[in-house]
Amino acid sequence: MVRDKGCYGAGWKFTVAQVVLENVYKSFSGRKGEKAIDKTEKFGQEVELLALPEALHTTSAQSPEQAVLRRINLTVKDGEFMVLVGPSGCGKSTLLRSIAGLEELTGGNIWVGDRLVNDLPPKERDIAMVFQNYALYPHMTVYDNIAFGLRRMSGGETTENSLPLWAENLLVGMTRSLPKKLKYLTEREKAIDAQVRVVAELLQIEPLLDRLPKQLSGGQRQRVALGRAIARNPQVFLMDEPLSNLDAKLRSETRAQIVKLQRQLGTTTIYVTHDQTEAMTMGDRIAVMNRGQIQQLAHPLELYNRPANRFVAEFIGSPPMNFLPVQFQAPLLITHPQSQFRLTLPDIWQRALQNYDRRPLILGIRPEHLNLSLPAPKNLQVRVDLVEALGNETVISVHLRETSAPSTFQVRIAPDRPVLLGEELWLSIAPDKIHLFDAQTEMAIWPR
Ligand SMILES: Nc1ncnc2c1ncn2[C@@H]1O[C@H](COP(=O)(O)OP(=O)(O)O)[C@@H](O)[C@H]1O
Ligand SMILES: [Mg+2]
């Protein structure tokens, strides 16, 4: 689909497209790294490959033919900001590289807009990718770094009043060493110039255009790298952990900038990160990945409130959710056999749990849903192992008393409540914030 984007002024057409992944499988055969490196060398430049992705440096042992991506089905809507989040090694980069065309699929289909791109080389997929280790061309100015991709783009519409190519080349050559204002610019260079300036304005890097990369800070370099990707006006942006090299403050600033920029441009974006905070704050929707599979696809708060399984429950939220193995007795009682803990669940659970009588369950409760309380069987008796006073809140680590295999919990408490190491406390569980998981499958059970 082609849309005219007002903010870019006349002549700036922004193509936006949905990306559909159908049953995508990927396994690496042969020696680790072989294929990826070949492809990167062959096609790297065509997708504005700014650096070798970290996948090529990973050293973890891997048996051949192991499926790195399994049954990936995902529709990224037109103009959507989709975040792929998951622990290191779960296949995020491989998926992104497959979409870019740097990896061949073992099975399945990838659609960009209405085109099946499986067999298209990266260049023809109309996708721009930004990596963690952005490498700008060190000998080129910021301006030329941004213009580079545009100059390399094939075609170049000749307008009616342009000179023959040989004459243009002659003029360009003769005036090359003159100051910028006296240089002869072809129609194509003029168009490129306009584009570079729009992008520079958008990213607020206009004052930097004449600098070399070495004269920039990390954050500025990353913005230039983004500028290169944006300038090409692709149908889709792919970003692979683009902020990992920045310090915490800059990371959160740049995070906000990227989100704002994406809203302005409306370009379909797939953003990869291992950082759940980044995912929660940036994504329209988030796909949580683990071991090559999508565990859950949902809006940020839905992931937090209704995690589909224990993995998602633990991965989303910081500090992570606490878990306690418990025994269930119909209609509503849960107990922890190694301690005195006995809790009657709210009535809403009765139907969902009717097949779980005398079976084990996993109780999940977030650190913010435990409260300091009084001795009672429905509360947990704990001892304090660690106190982290953060100013606006205090996070304490505790373990359950009188158990052989200690269960540990993290609890968020108000900063004005003094807590001592080794202190004994009783914690109550917010009854409407309880999560339960099947002990075997680790799938969430929902009140019905
Ligand atoms: N070229 C390759 N050859 C073989 N295995 C690879 C290759 N690239 C990545 N892998 C493996 O695939 C898995 C997923 O890697 P990757 O996609 O880089 O994960 P992530 O980006 O989520 O950290 C890892 O186990 C990694 O070692
Ligand atoms: Mg990666």
Summed up, what is this model?
The chain is α+β, with helices and mostly antiparallel strands and 448 residues long.
- The percentage helix is 10-25%
Shape: elongated
Structural classification: alpha+beta
Rg over alpha carbons? 27 Å
Given the structure, what is the number of helices?
10
CATH architecture of the largest domain: 3-Layer(aba) Sandwich
Protein name: ATP-binding cassette domain-containing protein
Keywords: ATP-binding, Nucleotide-binding, Transport
Domain ABC transporter: 47-316
Organism: Aerosakkonema funiforme FACHB-1375
Description of the molecule:
One of its GO terms (molecular function) is ATP binding. Residues 47-316 form the ABC transporter domain. The protein is an alpha+beta fold. It has two domains: 1-312, P-loop containing nucleotide triphosphate hydrolases (Rossmann fold, 3-Layer(aba) Sandwich), CATH 3.40.50.300; 319-445, OB fold (Dihydrolipoamide Acetyltransferase, E2P) (Beta Barrel). The protein is built from ten helices and 23 strands. A six-stranded mixed beta sheet has the order 8-9-10-5-11-12, with helices on both faces. The chain has a six-stranded antiparallel beta sheet with strand order 15-14-13-16-22-23. It has a five-stranded antiparallel beta sheet with strand order 17-21-18-19-20, with no helix packed on it. It has helices at residues 34-43, 92-100, 142-152, 165-175, 187-202, 218-231, 248-265, 276-282, 300-305, 310-315, and strands spanning 2-4, 13-15, 19-27, 67-76, 81-85, 107-112, 115-116, 127-130, 236-240, 268-273, 285-290, 293-298, 322-329, 333-335, 342-344, 360-365, 370-373, 380-389, 394-400, 408-413, 424-429, 435-438, 444-445. Adenosine-5'-diphosphate binds next to helix 1 and helix 2.
